[in-house]
Amino acid sequence: MTSGKSAPKILITILRVAAGWFFLYEGMIKVFDPGWTSFNYLSNTSGFLSGFYHALSANPVVLGIVDFLNVWGLVLIGLALFVGLFIRFAAIAGALLLALYYFAYPPFGASLFGSSEGSMYIVDRNFILAMVMLFFAFSREKGYGIDAITGFFFRKWNRYFAAGETPSPGGYRSRLDILRNLATLPVLGALGFGAYRVKERFGVDVLSGATIQINPASLGELKGSLPTGKLKNHSISRLVLGGNLIGGWTHARDLRYVSPLSRAYNTERKVYETLMLAENAGIDTINIGYPSNLLMAKYKKMTGSRIKVISQVRPNMDNGDYFEQINGAIDHGTDILQVQGNWCDWLVRDNKMEVIHEMLEKIRSHGITAGLGAHSVEALIRCEEEGIIPDYYMLTMHHDRYWSAHPRENRVVFEVDGHKNPEHGRFHDNMFCLFPEKAVDFVNRTNIPVMGFKVLAAGSIAPEDGFRWAFENGADFICVGMFDFQIVTDVNITVDVLNSLDNRQRKWFA
């Protein structure tokens, strides 16, 4: 039975250990990431002390010292707080370090970190934790820990020497007291093992403090809130973040360097920054390829993000398991499932309509919204004729009035994602909505929601033009791949277009 006197001490111990784990975990994540540096964090600061932080990042020697002190300061402060050793010194050092974090990105302005940290003006996570540090710096009660053992023996030996006596071994109040003050050590081991297991599965946590940055100034340029629509029981923004760039896929015609350049830019850290900026800008949904499910599961786990994930899935035709990716995506916590567009094309082309039907029914059997994608509108027309109707369509929707669109007489049904013809006037990863008028006719006669994608023809059409064309011609949502520096601009364009949409004939089905 815990006595009334010891209960507060236990609670204080838990608070101290939790704070210690925060510091220790932040530090060890950086130790395990040999490429970590605070350069981006310091160089992007926006507070009134930004000049000071920018100066620290400008000198490579100073930056190296800052990185070393930051990493090992976090580790040592966290370890000391966790085991209860040199608590007062660790708490003071922790408060000072948190103050540096706090004033680097002060929360009395635009929200910087959104769902990962959040702030209620003035008060954010760093502020609250700094107050906890000050409590431990000045409070007499610090909970159970090694300090209590060393302090007892130090005081006891001082009394013996003052009396001219020889201290005898042992004599501590009880073995139970020793065990209580050492209890955090096995807890440290258990948490460390758990963190190691998470690291083995997800890799290094790139979302640790002093790592992820977004530009709060750009959020101040937003013109308004993104309108939303409904996909069954899901309310989602009408502008959906495309997953190709995040997943490392690009359509670049004959420019061979674009895909590796995109992958080099969109590191996992940059992907996190992009997702956080998108959420802060009002984009609450992302459409991803199946391989990106692990990344999105990690992002949501680490940040507490509520971004809705639409996962594309395909059948495994080699082993006949049509549901392998469906089950995998569900295990990763996806919100909406969609039969991948190129696979819908190929299955229709090869007269394997039953596979599409079985996949949609499997998705629905889990109570999940089921979408059907296609690059060729002919695939969706054929599905409709066969009575295969999803909860929504995702269709390539762009006009062909751009320079690299090959002549209409050279376009072949189902050639998208097929062979790249070396002839200049034929398909070469350059066009995705081969027959725009046919696509528009289909969209305008269907009575389920439609999400248009490739609306910019992979960068050939200006957003102001492509967004308006897709919405005017019946799209209820558009899915657009964006780098982080394009997000605020694209949100503003979407808001402007939807506020001045005079030529849309189709009613909104979402």
Provide an overview of this structure.
- This protein is an alpha/beta fold and 510 residues long.
- The protein has two domains: 6-144 and 183-202, no CATH class; 234-499, TIM Barrel, CATH 3.20.20.100.
- It contains 21 helices and ten strands.
- The protein has an eight-stranded parallel barrel with strand order 3-4-5-6-7-8-9-10, surrounded by five helices.
- Strand 5 (308-313), helix 15 (324-331) and strand 6 (336-339) form a beta-alpha-beta unit.
- Helix 5 packs antiparallel against helix 6 (125-138) and helix 20 (463-472) crosses helix 21 (487-499).
- The termini are far apart.
What is the strand and helix layout of this fold?
Elements: H1 6-31, H2 39-43, H3 50-58, H4 60-83, H5 87-104, H6 125-138, H7 146-162, H8 175-182, H9 184-202, H10 216-219, E1 228-231, E2 234-237, E3 239-242, H11 244-247, H12 258-265, H13 268-281, E4 285-288, H14 293-303, E5 308-313, H15 324-331, E6 336-339, H16 341-349, H17 353-365, E7 369-374, H18 377-385, E8 392-396, H19 436-445, E9 450-453, H20 463-472, E10 477-480, H21 487-499
Parallel strand pairs: 3-4, 3-10, 4-5, 5-6, 6-7, 7-8, 8-9, 9-10
Antiparallel strand pairs: 1-2
Helix pairs in contact: 1-4, 4-5, 5-6, 16-18, 20-21
